[in-house]
Task: inverse folding
């Protein structure tokens, strides 16, 4: 009955477990969004409201005569085309709409054609039923005999009904990635425009949280989260006009300097915009993205990550066989599983000791490592460790044999001097060039052929494309599209050849924390800033869209190398245990007590690893709220196990009371036994070994003591493991 009413009205209702998206697609008209929100509130009422004449919003407004109709001057259009005769407008009408099933949902395709020009636009929506998530993207086809050009070609649009709408976006800089900025939406344009080109998450993330019920809440209220799955330049645009009932949210490739010329019979497919609705607050949206990401967008999202020691902050480029051997022996003794050799191991004519040369010359520096990488892999193996290695294969230095041989392999403006990256000598290889694609594939292939035992690669990328160009391109404005096509082709080839390799994406820290990149990677380095206190903030914001399994989170030395801050070993361990645990320091510099604590941490992390890496996140108390403390937890899908974290962030002794944090995500009808993990010499907290009902824990929570062993209050922290009885 309902279905037939929907069909009569040309409406397609895509359902996920808890949400519904209704698109109206009547022949001869344009696609409209009738509804997006919770499933319970949806079907019958929507049809009735629509039948009573309510006006739905444009699902993909294009630059046409109706742009003015939206509200005078509203710039919220997603597609703008220059026709072959120079005309600027489109006038699209739906030709057909169809739905088909895939294993976890449906795909709706609405094909529209211009009434005069041979331009076709296919809007696609794909539902992920179990994860309550949609992806939308667009395919634009030139059916004519001459080129047309795309002046704007966004991936998707969401009209957001006005009310008390707040938007959170995430941005920062090197060492301070992903700070959250929240503000109510007001008249005008709010634009996150990223033109870095390659390290695109360092300055701003391609994600936004849209809270519909006032200031964002972690565990209540209606929220839409959206992520553009693209590694290059992008726009997230919010447009609000006083005379219109809706805010407009649009996202896609940044069209600035990127006009795309579409040849006859050519099709341009935009990246996907993923979005999810939850009425369980920001954390509800995060859980949906985490589940979707682990299953569909992350390499090996179902495999536990190993606990690794990375050599960078321990020895920087001062690598040598005896030093690495000792580090590996210590790491093995502490219970580690994987050792990663960072920068400094390579170079022929130019030795990689300062970081301003040798990128591209991926031959081992025999003076430092006489037995090469195979010697180290074998040594690691004898100690029961897997081995991994750092490379930066998309880059070169002017001081390198590669650059001397192939000066034309780099991105640069056609007739102007390039801007050099790190060390004043770094340039980006031109991924549009098939020879470069082969070379980059060969870097990984060469290492793997030489040593099939390699388990892990840290793939770094320390530069921005900015205004560079490529002499190979007919149109410089195609650089983004062609560069990323080359990247995708090469990474696909690497993944096909080495499907089991673990690959971390690092880009001067968290510059590639993006769902546009992670399909080929297993995790990302959150930030070069390894200060545990700052990591509490950065990992909190990263967790809005990325699950703990993706977040490389390492215990580092004090005073911290980036901030100089001194925090307790216990605090550093606890923070690192809330992500993918690792270590980034010289183990030999630790005292026996610290070593004992790390040893215990590794034992305990192995126990909680499935809950942390595959569990559902519930953020409880934001560090942004008052800067005093932060708390979050992960619960297993069956709700039989949970890990609770509590970090004190200030040392203000006038605040002697820290109210209990009500927990979340537990089963109210089950009882949970509390076990405190890695408490060092601190006395067990009063709740150790006690059993509490899920209901009590979620309504009241436990008041955490904030004084630790030595009577100090600074950097007190707790990790509680809750197991259902
Ligand atoms: C970048 C990375 C670091 C480290 C260095 C090595 O800065 O973000 O983690 O790998 O390069 O040069």
Result:
């Amino acid at each position: 009955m309902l279905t037939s009413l929907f069909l009569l009205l040309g409406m397609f209702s895509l359902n996920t477990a808890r949400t519904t998206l209704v698109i109206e697609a009547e022949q001869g008209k344009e696609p409209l969004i009738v509804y997006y929100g919770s499933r319970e509130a949806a079907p019958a009422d929507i049809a009735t409201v629509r039948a009573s004449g309510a006006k739905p919003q444009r699902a993909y407004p294009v630059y046409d005569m109706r742009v003015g109709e939206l509200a005078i001057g509203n710039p919220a259009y997603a597609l703008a085309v220059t026709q072959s005769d120079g005309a600027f407008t489109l006038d699209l009408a739906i030709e057909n709409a169809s739905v088909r099933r895939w294993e976890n949902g449906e795909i709706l395709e609405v094909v529209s054609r211009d009434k005069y020009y041979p331009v076709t636009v296919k809007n696609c929506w794909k539902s992920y039923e179990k994860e309550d998530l949609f992806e939308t993207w667009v395919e634009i086809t030139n059916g004519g005999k001459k080129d047309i050009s795309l002046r704007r070609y966004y991936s998707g649009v969401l009209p957001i009904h006005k009310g008390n709408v707040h938007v959170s976006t995430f941005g920062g800089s090197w060492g301070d990635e992903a700070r959250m900025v929240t503000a109510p939406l007001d008249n005008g344009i709010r634009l996150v425009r990223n033109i870095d080109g390659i390290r695109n998450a360092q300055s701003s993330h391609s994600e936004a949280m849209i809270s519909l019920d006032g200031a964002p809440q972690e565990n209540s209220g209606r929220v839409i989260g959206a992520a553009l799955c693209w590694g290059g330049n992008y726009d997230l645009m919010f447009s609000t006009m006083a005379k219109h009932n809706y805010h407009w949210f649009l996202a896609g490739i940044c069209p600035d300097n990127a006009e795309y010329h579409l040849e006859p019979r050519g099709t341009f497919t935009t990246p996907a915009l993923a979005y999810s609705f939850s009425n369980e607050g920001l954390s509800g949206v995060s859980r949906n993205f985490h589940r979707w990401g682990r299953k569909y967008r992350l390499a090996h999202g179902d495999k536990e990550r190993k606990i690794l020691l990375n050599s960078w902050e321990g020895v920087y480029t001062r690598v040598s066989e005896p030093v690495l051997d000792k580090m590996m022996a210590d790491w093995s003794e502490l219970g580690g599983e994987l050792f990663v050799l960072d920068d400094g191991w390579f170079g022929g004519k130019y030795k990689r000791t300062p970081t301003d040369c040798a990128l591209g010359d991926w031959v081992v520096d025999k003076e430092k490592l006489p037995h090469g990488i195979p010697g180290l892999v074998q040594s690691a193996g004898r100690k029961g460790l897997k081995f991994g290695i750092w490379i930066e294969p998309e880059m070169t230095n002017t001081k390198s044999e590669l650059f001397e041989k192939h000066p034309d392999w780099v991105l640069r403006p056609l007739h102007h001097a390039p801007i050099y990256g790190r060390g004043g000598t770094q340039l980006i290889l031109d991924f549009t060039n098939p020879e470069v694609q082969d070379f980059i594939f060969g870097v990984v292939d060469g290492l793997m052929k030489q040593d099939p035992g390699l388990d892990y690669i840290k793939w770094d990328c320390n530069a921005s494309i900015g205004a560079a160009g490529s002499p190979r391109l007919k149109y410089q404005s195609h650089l983004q599209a062609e560069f990323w096509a080359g990247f995708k082709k090469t990474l696909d080839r690497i993944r096909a050849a080495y499907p089991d390799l673990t690959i971390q994406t690092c880009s001067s820290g968290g510059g590639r924390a993006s769902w546009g990149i992670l399909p080929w990677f297993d995790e990302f380095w959150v930030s070069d800033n390894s200060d545990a206190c700052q990591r509490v903030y950065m990992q909190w914001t990263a967790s809005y869209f990325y699950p703990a399994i993706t977040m490389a989170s390492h215990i580092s030395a004090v005073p911290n190398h980036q901030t100089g801050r001194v925090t307790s070993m216990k605090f550093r361990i606890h923070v690192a245990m809330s992500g993918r645990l690792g270590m980034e320091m010289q183990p030999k510099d630790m005292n026996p007590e610290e070593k004992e604590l790390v040893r215990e941490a590794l034992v305990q992390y192995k126990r909680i690893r499935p809950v942390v890496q595959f569990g559902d996140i519930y953020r409880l108390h934001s560090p942004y709220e008052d800067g005093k403390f932060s708390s979050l937890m992960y619960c297993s899908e069956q709700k039989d196990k949970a890990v609770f974290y509590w970090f004190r962030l200030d040392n203000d002794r006038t605040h002697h009371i820290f109210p209990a944090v009500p927990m979340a995500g537990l089963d109210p009808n089950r009882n949970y036994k509390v076990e405190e993990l890695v408490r060092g010499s601190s006395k067990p907290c009063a709740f150790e070994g006690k059993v509490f009902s899920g209901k009590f824990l979620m309504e009241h929570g436990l008041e955490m003591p904030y004084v630790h062993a030595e009577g100090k209050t600074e950097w007190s922290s707790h990790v509680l493991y809750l197991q259902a009885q």
